[in-house]
Automatic annotation (TrEMBL), chain A:
CDD domains: ABC_Carb_Monos_I, ABC_Carb_Monos_II. This is Sugar ABC transporter ATP-binding protein. SMART domains: AAA. InterPro entries: AAA+_ATPase (IPR003593), ABC_carbohydrate_import_ATPase (IPR050107), ABC_transporter-like_ATP-bd (IPR003439), P-loop_NTPase (IPR027417). It comes from the Bacteria.
């Protein structure tokens, strides 16, 4: 019912889509996978009307169509559930659901809120969400917002003649395990009403949910796999053109840490509503992983250790000295480096060059009476570009033009070059493709070898297990279970999930 | 990417081919300068009198106070804030400068020179209060500085009682009257100040901090920068440049009064924006402001030379700002504007 034939898309200098053939039948769930930069997002944008194809055909029920904007695509039954939360946080749930389509509830210029609430409730029922439609969206959890977005797209059902195609872009990335299960059963239920295109980095989930899986590489579909006989390893192989070995997480390079050298001691800290009575120790060369579902308090603990948030109770000791003032400046001074999840917001300044970003946290060491020693800054940046093999043509390149993996390397170079030896990594591999992930894992091992202590909030449980020396499982702001993870003696996914939920 | 486009700090890579030079970024980067040349060319053709040393000197004299104010506010805009206090700041600095100057004997040759550091101090203090109100009380910069501007106007009226203070010391006035190579000394003073501003912008920690705060405040904070301090220092530096502008304005007309700063707010902010500094911070700089000030004054002067009335000039300047902001905004990356 929805089909792409030999679709082409070119940007200046980039051939983003090369003759894509793509079909989705009524009630089908189709997976779409590929490394970052393989062309997935471009393809999706063509499908939901944000981009226009410049070759080939888009067919709906056999008729060639051309969407000039997402609104037109929606009128033809194609809707998108966005990866980044696209709901407006200060509006209510029902206002968000009917945003742009309020006209149906307007009588003589006045909105009939009751009518809208009833209609919204009907939409929310479809996704089995029982919340008051008048709730302000910012009060909802991530999972609830995801469902509201789905409900919003499902309003197409009433508006559009014919069948729906719904794109799900990384819908599970902010969800906890049981929420994912809920979403999946919901999607399976909804296939009576719509077809789904499911885009995700998590191959196991794609395989679990999809009838067919399109594998993309370098702007082309390299294979279409039947969901039943798909397995992760072979798809990964097709995506990257190489096998992911058992050494993916660099376990062979995991060395025991130095238990005699504690870098950080946290003693019974509590922050109301975030975490409660947390105690932990981090040693030189150790990777300590905080595992828990979204909202379990992992990030809040990191922020406190860095100094962004003062705990109500308890104390933090950095290298033998008790922390009195909680500020980012003090954390940096004590050698703590924070690599936040949102690279664009707290990780690096787009618009500044590589060398400017690298010395941002340590300008004191590269200035004399307030005057910068730019030649030295550049030298430092050149060293680190080489050391971490950052793909940048020079240290003068604008960081905003680097790929995600290389931006992450710049952020790590910033902290390591400044001599930080306590590094807090919050989802360091989020949104990176497999090659770039491996680079990050290498860097983690190298840092440990150099006596750096790392606290990690991993993107996936496998990553947490693979990289850690020690795992603390957190639920509802409290540490429920500790695991030692020597190579060969690592806990299983099941062990962790048992204490997480 | 816009940021680098408008920062002149990085030299143009000449080894690249002409094709590479004609990119959108490069066009955006050099557009203000091209506009300036085009304007000079246009007015020269429209009226040959425009293209004379005397006229250029006239333009440069008119430009100097606005350049100093513009340079000051450039630092603020680089941080993504705005400062609307310049008219009040200039009034206070000018009036206090003249009062001190007169009280100290009224001559640069005597103790009167002390009024110069005195005025700079007043400007710094004014900026400090401005910054403290903005950062300490968490009042948006545009509101804090707008209010401080009114406070300054009121303060200067209080000091002068509405009178004009004449500054007739020949040595001080020689800033305007003594010429080197056709241009009065004040032009060289302003250029020296501009070089210092360029140094602050490109070579110092605080200058880098301005760009960091403007480019990503959260990130600057998470990198351990003391963002409130950076902001306050920014306002102090701006205040010092306002004081310089005030003194040059006094030297220009020989009179200090409450209205000395009149019209400088619009002209200076227009210049910054027309020069290509982004209103949301992180991109641009004082060299852009120099080009912007010249564009604004060349237009003003050119229209006078052509004999157009002054209300036309105001209208043209207003349009110019809209066009400049339109051209300098990368609308591909900016879907909504508040």
């Amino acid at each position: 019912m929805f089909e792409l034939q030999k679709v082409e898309k070119k940007f200046p200098g980039v051939h983003a889509l090369k003759g894509i053939d793509f079909t989705i039948k009524r009630g089908e769930i189709v997976g779409l996978v590929g490394e970052n930069g393989a062309g997935k997002s471009t393809l999706m944008k063509v499908i939901y009307g944000a981009y226009q194809h410049d070759g080939g055909q888009v067919l709906v029920d056999g008729r060639a169509v051309r969407f000039h904007n997402p609104r037109q695509a929606m009128d033809m039954g194609v809707g998108m559930v966005f990866q980044e939360q696209s709901l407006i946080p200060n509006l209510t749930v029902m206002e968000n659901i009917f945003l742009g389509f309020e006209q149906q509830f307007v009588h003589l210029g006045v909105v009939n809120w009751k009518k809208m609430a009833t209609a919204a409730r009907q939409q929310l029922d479809k996704v089995k969400l029982s919340i008051d439609p008048a709730t302000v969206t910012s009060k909802l959890s991530f999972a609830q917002r995801q469902l509201v977005e789905l409900a919003k797209v499902l309003t197409l059902e009433e508006r559009v003649q014919g069948d729906l195609v719904i794109l799900l872009d990384e819908p599970t990335s902010v969800l906890a395990k049981e929420e994912i299960e809920l979403l999946f059963s919901l999607v399976r239920d909804l296939r009576k009403r719509a077809s789904f295109i499911f885009v995700s980095h998590r191959l196991d989930e794609v395989i679990e949910l999809s009838d067919r899986i399109y594998v993309m590489k370098d702007g082309a579909v390299v294979d279409v796999v039947d969901g039943k006989d798909a397995d992760v390893a072979s798809i990964q192989h097709k995506m990257v053109g190489r096998n992911i070995s058992k050494e993916y997480y660099r376990e062979e390079k995991q060395k025991p840490f130095d238990a005699a050298k504690p870098l950080l001691e946290v003693d019974g800290i509590s922050l109301a509503g975030r975490y409660n009575d947390i105690s932990l120790k981090l040693h030189a060369g150790e990777v300590l992983c905080l595992v828990g579902v979204e909202g379990s308090g992992r990030e809040a603990i990191l922020r406190t250790i860095f100094g962004l948030q003062k705990p109500h109770l308890g104390q933090v000791t950095l290298k033998g000295r008790r922390v009195e003032t909680f500020s980012a400046a003090h954390g940096v001074e004590c050698g703590v480096g924070y690599v936040p999840r949102e690279r664009k917001i707290e990780g690096m300044v787009g618009g500044m060059t590589v060398y400017e970003n690298i010395t941002l946290s340590q300008m004191r060491n590269y200035s004399n009476a307030g005057v910068l020693e730019i030649a030295r800054e550049r030298g430092l940046a050149r060293d680190w570009i080489k050391k971490l093999s950052i793909k940048a043509s020079s240290e003068n390149v604008d960081c905003a033009n680097l790929s995600g993996g290389n931006q992450q390397k710049v952020v790590l170079a910033k902290w390591r070059s400044g001599g930080s030896d306590i590094i807090l990594l919050d989802h360091p591999t989020r949104g990176l493709d497999i090659g770039a992930k491996e680079d990050v894992y290498d860097m983690v091992r190298d840092m440990c070898g150099a006596g750096v202590g790392i606290i990690l909030v991993a993107d996936t449980l496998e990553e947490a297990i693979g990289l850690s020396h020690t795992i603390a499982v957190i639920r509802d702001g409290e540490i429920r279970k500790w695991y030692d993870c020597p190579p060969g003696g690592k806990p299983s996914l099941y062990d962790l999930i048992h204490y997480m939920t | 990417m816009l940021a680098m486009a408008t920062r002149f700090a990085v030299p143009c890579p000449w080894e690249k081919s002409v094709e590479n030079l004609l990119t959108r970024d490069n066009l955006q980067k050099w557009a203000p300068l091209l506009v300036l040349f085009a304007l000079v060319l246009f007015f020269s053709i429209a009226n040959p009198n425009f293209l004379s040393m005397r006229n250029f000197a006239r333009i440069s004299i008119l430009s100097t106070p606005a350049l100093m104010i513009g340079v000051g506010v450039t630092f603020i805009i680089l941080m993504g804030s705005i400062d609307l206090s310049m008219e009040g700041a200039v009034a206070v600095c000018a009036v206090l400068f003249a009062t001190m100057f007169t009280a100290l004997g009224g001559s640069l040759a005597g103790w009167g020179w002390l009024a110069i550091p005195g005025a700079l101090f007043v400007g710094a203090l004014f900026g400090l209060i401005n910054g403290l109100v903005h950062v300490g009380l968490k009042i948006p910069s545009f509101m804090a500085s707008l209010s401080m501007g009114f406070v300054g106007i009121g303060l200067s009226l209080l000091i002068t009682g509405g009178d004009r203070i004449r500054v007739e010391d020949p040595l001080f006035r020689s800033l305007l009257t003594y010429r080197l190579g056709g241009f009065p000394v004040m032009v060289y003073v302003a250029l020296a100040a501009l070089l210092i501003a360029g140094f602050i912008q490109g070579q110092t920690k605080i200058g880098r901090n301005f760009y960091a705060v403007g480019g990503g405040e959260d990130l600057a904070h998470a990198s351990g920068l003391n963002v409130p301090r950076v902001r306050i220092i920014g306002f102090v530096i701006a205040g010092i440049f306002y004081a310089l502008g005030a003194m040059l304005a006094v030297a220009q007309i020989g009179i200090a009064e409450t209205v000395t700063g009149r019209n400088l707010m619009f002209v200076s902010i227009t210049s910054v924006v027309v020069g290509g500094t982004a209103l949301w911070g992180g991109a641009g700089g004082v060299w852009n402001t120099l080009v912007g000030v010249l564009i604004v004054n060349v237009i003003g002067n050119g229209m006078v030379v052509m004999g157009l009335p002054s209300y036309v000039q105001d209208g043209v300047l207003g349009l110019l700002v809209i066009i400049a902001v339109y051209l300098s905004t990368d609308r591909r990356s900016l879907s909504f504007v508040k």
